[in-house]
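Narrative of activities, Objective 1.

The group set out to show that a structural description can be obtained from nothing but a protein's sequence at a throughput compatible with the screening campaign. Below is one input-output pair from the validation batch, recorded exactly as produced.
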Amino acid sequence: MPKLRKPAPKGRISVLVTVGALALLVPGGALAVSASSLAAESPESPPATGASAASAAVVAEGAAADQERGPRLVAHRGASGYAPENTLAAADVAHELDTEWVETDVQQTADGELVLLHDTTLSRTTDVEEVFPDRAPWNVSDFTAEEIAQLDAGSWFGPEFAGEPVPTLGDYLDLLEENGQSLLLEIKSPELYPGIEEDIVAELREEGWLRGRPGDRLVVQSFNADSVRTVHELVPRVVTGFLGTPALADVPEYAEFVDQVNPRYRDLTAEYVAGIQAVRGAHGRPLEVYSWTINDAATATTVAGLGVDGIITDFPDRVRAGLGD
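Output recorded for this entry:
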């Protein structure tokens, strides 16, 4: 298990990880049907020069190598087996474990700020009940961004993470940019936040995440098919995914607006994976299958054998080692 350096109580937390003698090489390719690089809205992207050109070359080489290596690994809510989920610290741990792709969940505050939390309430992963004892049931949507910024989102996981904040989407995008990481962004419970898709697209555009080739850096997914369809309609070039296990007969309908179908691993069979991949998605490529949440080597090996394109895990180092990468 990695050794984590205690993060500073405020500001961006950088967590250093030591993983012994394992050579941690990023498996998997360019989240082909996952919308990771919410490709440039405009057909023309600024020419890459200097460091950006070098980064582009690395991404291209990594994509080719990934296709040979097998499923791409995605750190679930960051490397959430080692750091509090959906925090900057968890993204940093994933980076230290050489995991390019991270998954996170986005919701919206009462005053419209986009923040990263899995649950629709704040009680499980923050100290909200202590800070605001009279605000039950502590729904994310009932608190302003300023109020949520007062919360400790790390102590529940371990004392070394005391003071870790709930990140905004903007803060998270800045960190991933700095680390050279890519994003699988889940819109969590969009039915609670009318119009959240437009706000997410606006934030991604402002931060420069809609530039580039579709799927290279960004994928947007949700359990809510209407929300995914809305994202596709707003920015057709963005790679999108549907979380769930639709009947194979219904997959062509989903393929009109998604590039991935991402089921729970227990629902998979080789026939089901092949049936999804036989259909072409919104960008004309075979649909991809990213499965979740796989945390041990034996399960990862079994799921990889079914032909999936990606594996979402809390422990990317364990899965990578199990797959022999």
